[in-house]
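Recap quiz, item 2
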Amino acid sequence: MSNLISLSGAQSSQFLDEEEDDELNVEDFFEKPDSIVFAIDCSSKMLVPDDQGNIPLQIAFQCVQSVLLNKAFNNRSDMIGVLLYGTKQAMNPSNYDHIYILQTLDSPDPGRIKAADDLAKGNNDRFRDEIGSSDEEFPLGNVFWLCSDMFAAAFKRIFLITNEDNPHKDNPSLRGSSLQRAKDLWDMGMRVELFGLDQPDHSFDYSLFYKEMMMLDNENDDVALDSRISSQSAMTGKVEDLLNQVRRKQASKRSNFSIPMHITPELSIGIRGYSIIMEQGRGSYTKVTSSGSMLQEVETVTSYKCADTDQFLADTDVKYFYPFGGKPALFTKDEVLQLRRFDEPHLRILGFKPRSSLQPHHNIASHSYFIYPNEMEYEGSTRTFAALLEAVKDQDKIAIAYLITRRTSAPSMVALLPQTEELGADGVQILPPGFQMIILPYADDIRQVPPSSEAEVTGEQIDALNGIIDDLMVDHRYDPMAYKNPSLQRHYSALQSISLDEPSKDIVDDTIPNQDIIDKAIACHSLSPFQ
Amino acid sequence: MANKKATVFILNCGPSMNLIYPGQEVSAYKQGVDVIIDALGEKVLANRKTDLTSVVLSGTQKTDNSLAEKTEGQYLHITSLSPLQQPTYKDLQMVSERPPTAPTDPTADIMDALILAIDMIMNKCKHLKYTKQIVLITDAAEPIDWRDAIEVQEMMNQNEISLVLLGADFDGSGLTKMEDNDPELTAIRELNQKHWAHVVTGDARHKLIGLQEAYTMALGFKVKEVMPVASYRGHLTFSEGLEWNVNMFSYTKPVRAASLKKWSTLPDTILDEPETSSSAQPVTHQVKMVRSFRIKPKEQTGAQEENVDRLDDLDLLAEAGDALPSVDESALEKAYPFGKVLVMITADEEKLLKLETTPSMLILGFYTAANVPRHFYMGPTYLLMAGKIDATKARDGMAALAQSLYEKDVVALVRFVNRVDASPKLGVLSPFFEGGVRCLLFCQVPFSEDYRPFNFSSLDKIKMKSGKVVTENHPLLPTQDMKDQMNQFVRKMDLMDVDGEEMFAPEDNFNPAVWRMNQAIMARALNDSANLPALHPRLQSQTKPPSALVDRSAALIKTMTNTFQVKKINTDKKRTRYGAGKGQEESRSAAHLQPIDAILVQKSTAAATEAGQEPAKRPKVELLSSWFDEEDLM
């Protein structure tokens, strides 16, 4: 009997989950840790304020602090490192000059966040005393070498923050070796995200050095460049934009599913689905037990017992039933799986409809998905996808499709909305090209409209409301970045202060309406039609 | 909250019900049986304790009903299968297994059955609040004693019982359609139908529906009605002077397939021994969940990445885990992860983590509908309707707002808190019109934390290494032929007019997971060895484009296959590239990473050797894959 206990404990995962969620499960995909090394230029140029008074280095530390905080709550297993270069002091395992490893690659913790916070706030004692700034020339390649040395995890990215667009301009040998080192990084699967900053009198010029560095393939000249470069176009060079730009990059681009898309019965391509939108929760707590000052994480072991015999159950001892009016309808585990399984994962186009047929209430899933071609499964996917996207867009239509993302997931009916690429005035990509995929409700999911009597609306009411609406119109696209979730902010901030034993700070709630403006707008219009 | 219901089904079992009417495949009796099974089956599945039913058969050999017991010699040949109660599978079985009436069977007066049904309902419901309904399935071919009709009608009206008459071969006005040679029968039919029509029109609650129509509906897919329950009662606020009392109701909400419970098979095998099986203890087959707590094995603790590659070691871990001390539930405390560390939180501190909020819906501003992209809509939708306080003002005000939003093609951005201390959500309100109702529809939109705007390469132009931008003549860009054919394809596969009808409107699509599971449950409950049902043809039709469209595009589809020349890539090759990635990388990194000085030396002779060092040209697949993105590690 005793080994049965351990068996059932070990096998509990083989029992079917009663409450299996039909929503697409994305958890699995986010378990692979990401790692980012910030490589921050500390030479004196980085200390020169821009015309807004922003000191680039200080903003760079703000970026570190922001990413550390974000990862601390959202991707605990992701790792961050901070390497400073162009420093007076040196601290690194190879004893290279002018490179100072401020934080080795590790998961964020409260101490590191506080350290970054201090530097970001310009509490510069530590910087002045221990690190310092230097303008002496040293091989930039050493920076890349040390960065590569710091990495261990699956996803490796270097966030390079500098306003020097032409390192080693008078030293071709160092320049060449730095480029070579950067190529090595690429070959090892590391990716450089360059955040080039303008200097007060000089815009960051990619063509001088970094363009070459980012074009690493030794293939012939006609090879297309990949998104390494296009992502650079997302930079504005403005110091004040740096924080936002780093935030946009902090989540690594991982897809939720990679499946075939059947366009005609004979024409299939590869696609990937991404969650560009996904509700970020507070995260659940972990059970711990404290013995003395030691905290230990506790896990829950769930096992099942037969109520009649009081014996532990293995999954082979269990069937599944639904109580149907006093009679159990019994199924074996295989049968239940069979009932849950519909087809191999795929997305199949069923046809096309006018865009206007998609109503606001045709929404059910917790978020939409972004669909982009995947050349790796089917060669020719990109051109075919591009042709489809353009045709659907040109005819102002949407595609209706049938979707199964995983072998055990229930099928959904979806609408594919074409989205053409949109670039801002500064060349920053605002919307990527691809289909936005909306999961449609089934008839089963649409409730009846509760009964209500017919309203009597007057022209005066409409006029008054039209006026108020005009006064309160926001004249740009809704920007999620403008609204932080106040509950999350509160949670983060309180947890931070508890862990660092600091007094708790108030948070700013971006979602509270600007009542002054609203009251003023309303005061301009008579409310008597509504009394 | 609970909406109590009492429903009595009366099925006329008289011999005339065995008639198969023109254009029908089964007898009126069989249609009646199926209608009852469908209705009962749905109720049994839903398992609502307050939804009571009974089935009364009129025209049975025997007599078994509560009124006949009291008044001897009356209410003959009427059988109530059960008292008014929550239906069980037995009711279904009794109805489905009862053989059709033989021509020699007696007939009963269906009016007696109706009186019995009213009596059963009133005995059970007394003056409590129930939705009371009698569903009466009959033809009109047998003589009926209409003398009590007025009294019966009054009893129903007074007690707010609605009568749904499913008439076999009644037409809408209650007159016969059947060409009959028997003048006597025709006279009976006409008289009966006239009377029934009179009864049904006697109260707005009553309905007359053709049995055939009801039968078709029972066989088809239909949406279950759900009692609307307000998920928020509060105000929609512009400012102090302008706010309306509102109730919020779910409008779209995912219906999940019935969830199954665990059933222990151990009693079947172990308790088979004679002495135990004779014991009085009834076998339940129930499964108890046993929860215990133990210190998490070190390998799994915290923010290490190790557990990713450790699937193979799962057994080992479990074994190691057993050696770890178990923890008593009372010793458990809460900790929230903060990066690498866990921060233990006391009950007092827990309050600090939560934002205090009060229920409200506040308008922040307005956006043109196009300025809130559709893909920002998150989750199910809700209807905002007038609440109870100042109901008329709220109804009219919100209707005016809906009208105004509609005319200007605008949506409102709101901050919404549905209960005390709930997290605020941002959402948009759009106008919603149905029938005469004008109200607002709420749907959530993302916060900055919910938004990850990834960049993707352009699809209509390619930046070449030389810096040149090309928009044509590239394997990754479509040719004009491709564009033309795809355009034609999109035009041909138009779902708005497939034999005159729109296909795949959400309101017409049914959830295969839900329906197949329900079908399987019902089949298994009534027959232990029933096979799993095949997917219903209607659900099957949702998985493929309509064949009419595919057929008329057949030639184009062929041409497109040739034009686009898409080739499936051998995935085994890919596996090698990724699966082996880790090990390869390490060896590569070791080989590649020489100290910087070594590179400097190398570079000094670079000009001479560079060409020679170039690796052999990679096959095209790999080239494209490296061309694409970094997330391909999954």
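Chain A touches chain B through 254 residues (CB under 8 Å).
Residues 1-13, 18-31, 216-234 of chain A have pLDDT under 50 and may be disordered.
End of item.
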